[in-house]
Amino acid sequence: MSNDPLLQPYQLKHLTLRNRIIVTAHEPAYPEDGMPKERYRAYTVERAKGGVAMTMTAGSAAVSKDSPPVFNNLLAYKDEIVPWIREMTDAVHEEGAAIMIQLTHLGRRTRWDKGEWLPVVAPSHHREASHRAFPKKIEDWDIERIIKDFADAAERMKAGGMDGVELEAYGHLIDQFNSPLTNDLDGPYGGSLDNRMRFCFDVLKAIRTRVGDDFILGVRYTADECLPGGTGREEGLEISKRLKESGLIDYLNVIRGHIDTDAGLTDVIPIQGMANSPHLDFAGEIRAATKFPTFHAAKIPDVATARHAIASGKVDMVGMTRAHMTDPHIVRKIIEKREDDIRPCVGANYCLDRIYQGGAAYCIHNAATGRELTMPHTIAKADRRKKVVIVGAGPAGLEAARVAGERGHDVVVFEAANDPGGQIRLTAQSERRREMISIIDWRMSQCEKLGVTFHFNTWAETETVQAENPDVVIIATGGMPHTEILSKGNELVVSAWDIISGDVKPGSNVLIFDDAGDHSGLQAAEFLANAGAKVEIMTPDRSFAPEVMAMNLVPYMRSLQKLDVTFTVTYRLESVEKNGNQLVAHVGSDYGGVNKQRTFDQVVINHGTIPLDELYFELKPASSNLGEISHDQLIDGRPQTVWRNADGKFQLFRIGDAVSARNTHAAIYDALRLLKDI
Ligand SMILES: Cc1cc2nc3c(=O)[nH]c(=O)nc-3n(C[C@H](O)[C@H](O)[C@H](O)COP(=O)(O)O)c2cc1C
Ligand code: SF4
User: Fold this and answer.
1) What CATH number is associated with residue 432?
2) InterPro entries of this UniProt entry (predicted)?
3) Could you say which of 32, 143, 243, 361 has the lowest number of CB atoms within 10 Å?
């Protein structure tokens, strides 16, 4: 038996957990019709197969109709969920993991125009900034109804074979009662801490009465809201003690912070560039004070920190939630002493931001997560070894090389630059986004183990590629900034990349015209403003940086607002001309009737990239498929069989930004789904 602290079993009441690593509640927004169907099950089971001790399914499964999901959560108030839950729990148990589910009523943290269009309820009229609904002040009959809804939902989950349920009590209805900031009720549910916690205890009692003792019940709650006038540390400790002393629950799952704003949420679930394990010591203090089973998760992305969390006795179970979205097989790799092979979570929060913006969580650099029904986490060997030549060692090229290597092919990569990484190397120029480089470093180390050959500082030409006698050629050459978008003065502007890379010296009065709305515009603004420039970001869009989603925007705003960067929306830069050593920007608007002139000394354009596709077009006539990809075969997960040229000696494919400007996830997905069948 291993003496690794992480691999020691843990006895949680009657439930034996096989090790100390859990996946905490997180709704990846995969439900179909509010049910955990095949996709949901496949995602969950993959983590159980990977060795995790317990997976907390769902996040915020809804117990009532007036708690409608804001993105896509499980509807625990429907009886039809039971058989779906049963299929999932059986499959997870078969893999040796425990499975629980988090239940909630969102209170004001939702919208009235979702689900059944019912009024949003909360213990006050105060609006939550993030979800914007003005709530109805909850009435006695609402309270009675919701307590019963919780008990009904818990009973459904027990009937479905769950090992237990957890209540979400931070930022949601239970916490809205607990916190003095969001509870304006008079007694019996408002005022003193006794009264404010009454709702929580009524819910717990109703559930316990319904499910009995042989069912795990836990609470995930904030023990310090970190907000003036809110639940402070002292009251949080008191809440912790009262929860324990109630005898109603089996563990505490400690959160520190508040989630009513994007910034608050980002402090609770820290993004890249923020400190690792920021609330671990705090969770340890709660455990020390309560001497009660304590769970905790918040940016503990690596095995060493997780091991420390357990070995130091700060927590009993450590959550590695996003880490398991990036690599579902963490525990298996620890057991096999292959920690180096764990794909690292880089804290990009693409997963979280996407549940709001794109409707499903995807990991920025594991395209198989959430696509378990079609994309493999473990790549199968090919029947025949092929020679695969890849041009470009950015995220697309490296993922192609890794997957081709796993397939057992003979892989050669040409890269014009000195180092691998492409655009990610540029991203990592920002201190705050340095973690992104692990996307490259992990692939390089995997490729090394797989025997992939790299030629850096090599500008691959047609002859370079053909000299390798390839069976398959992958063009992953990326793109170059596209700045030629003005009616006049294109030669006077520079690109966001010029600024980020340091190739162009920052001006002192700078306009950034950003209609790509992605990270590069904000990143350039930060470089410029940090160098002392006065910076204005202008966009024709309704809001600035629409591709940089909620949690990703937080660190930028924290930095850019301090640096006095200004934002101008709904205006379009049309042309630029020189006036002495100044630049005159002619500004119009898509809404018409605007013609302004503004003076700057530098104009920066952020307008995506245009593909570097020369080599692709040169190679095309010599290929057997003339560059064509069968979309049907790609989508269905079948090998590519397009045959258009009898003289063609190799198949030719183009992936990532070499096709069109997209993002890191799209580039990696392009590579995985094509190469897994080659
Ligand atoms: C896509 C996604 C959805 C989440 N939804 C919930 C939720 O509904 N309830 C909850 O308590 N936590 C939720 N979380 C937070 C996680 O449980 C966890 O606290 C957070 O990711 C920090 O832990 P980590 O750094 O190990 O990922 C979510 C996280 C992610 C990534
Ligand atoms: S998107 Fe980023 S934060 Fe989310 S799981 Fe993937 S690497 Fe981790």
Assistant:
1) 3.40.50.720
2) Aldolase_TIM, FAD/NAD-bd_sf, FAD/NAD-binding_dom, NADH:flavin_oxidoreductase, OxRdtase_FMN_N
3) 32
Token representation of residue 488: 């006049």
**CA 493 to ligand 2 centroid distance, Å:** 34
Residues 323 and 279 in one domain: yes
Regarding whether 101 and 28 lie in a shared domain, the answer is yes
Instruction: Give the rounded percent of residues in the chain with a pLDDT score beyond 90.
Output: 99
pLDDT at 70 over 90: no
Q: Which residues, 6+ apart, have CB-to-CB distance to 66 below 8 Å?
A: 105, 115, 116, 118, 119, 120, 121, 142
Residue of the nearest CA to atom 11 in ligand 1? Answer: 25
Are 239 and 104 within one domain? yes
Domain presence at residue 475 = yes
- Please compute the mean of the pLDDT values over residues 477-497 and round it to a whole number: 98
Residue 319 CA to ligand 1 centre (angstroms):
9
Q: What are the tens digits of pLDDT across the range 591-623?
A: 999 999 999 999 999 999 999 999 999 999 999
Average pLDDT on 416-434 reads 95
Q: Is 300 in the pocket of ligand 2 (CB under 6 A)?
A: no
Beta bridge partners, 610, equal: 480
- Distance between CA atoms of 471 and 414, rounded to whole angstroms? 16
Q: Would you say 576 and 599 are in contact if contact means Cβ atoms under 8 Å apart?
A: no
Mutational test site, ligand 1, from 60, 110, 172, 321, max ligand atoms within 8 Å of CB:
321
Of ligand 1's atoms, which has the minimum distance to the CA of residue 59? 8
In the predicted model, is pLDDT for residue 357 greater than 80?
Answer: no
Q: Is residue 374 part of a domain?
A: no
Q: Which pLDDT does position 164 carry in this prediction?
A: 98
Q: Using DSSP, state whether 143 is helix, strand or coil.
A: helix
Domain that holds residue 417: 387-480+612-676
> Distance (Å, rounded) from C-alpha 648 to C-alpha 178?
70
SS3 readout for 340-366: HHCCCCCCCCHHHHHHHHCCCCCECCE
Q: CATH number of the domain at 560, please.
A: 3.50.50.60
pLDDT digits (tens, 9 = 90+) for 159-175: 999 999 999 999 999 99
Indicate which atom in ligand 2 lies nearest the CA of residue 344.
7
**580 and 526 within one domain:** yes
* pTM greater than 0.90: yes
Structure tokens at 69: 């999901």
| Residue nearest atom 6 in ligand 2 by C-alpha distance | 363
- Residue 424 in contact with ligand 2 by CB distance below 6 A: no
Residues 596 and 629 grouped into a single domain: no
Count of domains for the chain: 3
Whose alpha carbon is nearest atom 7 of ligand 1? 59
Do residues 240 and 354 both lie within one domain?
yes
Say yes or no: 126 and 221 in one domain: yes
Tokens describing residue 314:
């700060």
Give the mutation target among 269, 276, 356 for probing the ligand 1 site: most ligand atoms within 8 A of CB.
269
Residue nearest to atom 22 of ligand 1 (CA): 298
Pocket test for ligand 2, best of 364, 441, 443 (most atoms within 8 A of CB): 364
